[in-house]
Amino acid sequence: MFLDTVKAQRYLDRALARGGDFAELFEEEKWTCSVSMLNGKIEAANSGERWGLSIRIFDGLRTVYGYTNEQDDEKIMAVIDQLAESIGRKRQAECRLLQPQEIADQHAPEIPVQSVTLKQRRQLMQRANDALLSYDPVIKKAMVNLADEDQTVIIASSEGKFVRDNRQRTRMRMQAVAVEGDRMQNSAKAPGAHAGYEFYDQIDIEAMAQDAARTAKVMLNADECPSGEMTVVIDNGFGGVIFHEACGHSLEATSVAYGNSVFCGKLGQKVASELVNAVDDGTIPHAWGSNNIDDEGYPCRRNLLIENGILKGYLIDPLNARRMGMEATGSSRRQDYTFEPTSRMTNTFLLNGTSTMEEIIADTPLGLYAKRLGGGSVNPVTGDFNFAVLEAYMIRGGQIAEPVRGATLIGNGAEILFKIDKIADNGSREQGMCGSKSGSIPTDVGQPTIRVRSMTVGGKGGKLK
Amino acid sequence: MIAETLLKFAREEGLEEAEVYQSQTQTLRFDILDQQSRQFVVSDSSGLSLRGTRKGRCASVYSEKTDEASLQALAVQCRELADALETEDTVLFTPGQTPMTDDRSDKTLAKHTASEKIEFMKKIEAAALKKDSRIQRVSACGYQEVASLTTLANTQGLQGTRSSTLGLITLSVIASDGKEQTNGFSWRSIKDLTSQDADELVEEAVQEAVSKLSAVRIPSGRYPAILRYDVATDLLGSLWSMFSSEQIQKDLSVLKDRQGQAVMSPLITIVDDPQLPDGFVSCDFDDEGVPTQRTVLVEKGVFKEALYDRKSALKANRASTGNGFKNGCSSPVQISPTNLLVEPGDQSLDAMMAQIEEGVLITDLQGLHAGLNPLTTDFSLQASGFKIEKGQIAYPIHLITIAANYLEMMNSIVAVGNDGRQDLNGVRCSSLYVENLAISGE
Fold this sequence. Notes:
Oligomer: heterodimer
Low-confidence stretches of chain A: none
Number of domains of chain A: 2
Number of helices of chain A: 10
Number of domains of chain B: 2
Radius of gyration of chain B: 24 Å
Strand content of chain A: 35-45%
């Protein structure tokens, strides 16, 4: 790494020369490697290393931000001076003496991602490939991608902070394409972790690949999903994207601090059915969305968001903490040094309820069983959200019936939380990439199976019969 | 200098052919909130990537470090990755003799000081708040200026330099009628700080936000529909990969084996035009150094030609169409359109609406990254817009979804509008009048 306490001290002090009350440096070195296999042959490989340094100065509720990727003292000073000049007053704060701080690594890899050979990567991908293709003759294509990342950051601030963290992540995407006549359906599983390659000894690659293949095959012969208002049972795991979109984004200070959220001013109030308990937990060892420290150097935390339907907290970064007059929650994240950090989710999920999945289905005379959800999006101002359903079935007479494809769930975050009337005891998490103001970052979504009394389902299959 | 050194290391490492892509980007951006600039960002960054072949198979590596040891390591890494490849696909890099230059930069904005730009945006924020009493807040008022320089060099003698600049202003406003809130967003690319751009930006965002107030849902059913030009553009922009020769070669496009066949309505003609004046993706050569060309993808509904880069062209035993582009240094070369344009028709939006007794005008789509399947072109997306009754806009509607298969929908086009504006990715489609569309609402 480029920064040491002496250099950092000098940069931070210079950053505060023309006003501003706080300055921060973020140095990042990131190695990435991505290898793709198509039907058993390695077809693409890309790897490289990024390095950059960003400088951020707080001036009350305002920030200035700059970055460069030249390891050149003069260039760095030029960026710092340009930023300081844009504040353009007299010095008001000094940089405290930087004290290197040790942090305990909760997510240290046993098999570091950079120690893995291309041959070992190939073997893992071959296993997924074989499991995908052998599932059924309708699976015509198996696409497997293995993507690794090894990031080291140093975060230093004018309050004396100087902390270093290493984050290694690995993720395997297994995609099946099923083809029959002129019909084509695809489906993927993409497990990942904040860990090294020991992760692949802990998961069942073959089972996951076959599950992806199964979905593609089932959806190949599915009818178009009917549309209209209906009861929807959303399965565990990636189903948690409903909470991520419908609620999580609206609890981020990026929305709340500016009055752009339906949850503004609702702390302590009922915002959901009393069955609902939700947390954002960035401390879970080796979870995809976890970190030891956030991207401003504060320890990640388990933040209670909703307890028995009552709103308990927001996700707050230090800048918006000032704006809101509240404490920061260890939630500041960014894609890389080119992004100014802000409040983001880590691993966000609904906690277990007391029903069972079987009871919930049996108790539903007519509705949609959304077994696997895709991504979605939300308008934080209105709380309106939508997401795609990748695998779905009708529920008829308390039993899972025919598969249907092409369903979209839409609704309003504030309303839907009240309509959750059953929560099962089978909570699990899955991995995703979340895109927002400070870039694309790894996050976990999760939940047990839930039932939403009534929801708008979009599809091409006409009215529900 | 760096490129020469890296190409030398690549040759020494045993790569058959090698190509270096370097980019340098300078940005300035800020947001205005409550008449103050916040999140003022300046940057100066650069990066490079190396592509190299072994047995014709091509790997790519990148770095933001340019010291000699890093360059040496990069060449080694490229050779190792290329040796690991097992694909039958090979690539030959573009030979070159005379250096190519493509300068599309404009220095007008750079002549203004940062404080002039801040003042300009402050006026926009103030004007938006004053424009309509229902505007409650400005949630974002942003300025962005990017200057980029790209250079290419390879072991086959190719040398190219491309430079461009972009100025962008954006505005988000929130309107309220006391009961509910709606938002409106607008953007303009700018070459100078002009009041016309500022006025249009304010007018569009404010109009969008207030026009959405008091929206209702409508019953599910099939309705005649007009997709406003921006929505039609969003859809094409999300589904263009059906025109990628690579997707077609891999059996991952609905246009596989359909060349020469009618795949859309005869009213539809789609071209990829790299020389569109003021186009956002206009350029003389692509990121493989291939001269760009105008390619007709769909002519009067008939699928004519796909987009090729050098790899897919070699596989098809033909020439590249000059559509090999990188999405920054860390991205490999991928097939991508330049200015992807649907040729406008002759009817105004009003004239198309006048033909509809009862239908919908769709003006906004959500969840484009999730609610559509590029493989099948099926989509099911949250939408909002307006109810059309007796040929006119009746009232705003929201929380509906529209679902269709894009190709089927493009086959049932009744009319193509004479409007349209390019989005930042270079895609442009006019408003489309669709015979009927499945809508789910109440």
